[in-house]
């Protein structure tokens, strides 16, 4: 009888430790999910509201980019997602004088011309959404499908 009780205690501890590890892993993934990056923000006239956001699976999350009104003259704003070890993938294009093009039902874009910002809403968030999210002004990148080159200065390189 005592062995059965010890075995049950061991199983309970094992289950609780697995739940803790799973929760910690999920929080880490979701922290990485919302590491919003903006390259050359001062040069392009675009900045992210925050550098990172965390959320639980099922939450709604909003990522915000502010831009200077002069930097969007005749151009457009783009949202990209980049999974770890992969190249950036296009999500949504926001034209200067038009609405947003949705690429997936899970994303919505709100363009506030008066406040000069663009919001990317992700709902409901899933662990599979863990990635870096970029907002960029056009022109953004150029290159072939294997290597992307950002309009580099001579001292910059991409690895």
Automatic annotation (TrEMBL):
One of its GO terms (biological process) is adaptive immune response. This is Ig-like domain-containing protein. InterPro entries: Ig-like_dom, Ig-like_dom_sf, Ig-like_fold, Ig_sub, Ig_V-set, TCR_variable_region. Residues 44-153 form the Ig-like domain. SMART domains: IG, IGv. Keywords: Adaptive immunity, Immunity, Immunoglobulin domain, Membrane, Receptor, Signal, T cell receptor, Transmembrane, Transmembrane helix. The chain crosses the membrane at residues 12-34. One of its GO terms (cellular component) is T cell receptor complex. The lineage of its organism: Eukaryota, Metazoa, Chordata, Craniata, Vertebrata. It holds the Pfam family V-set. The keyword Lipid biosynthesis does not apply.
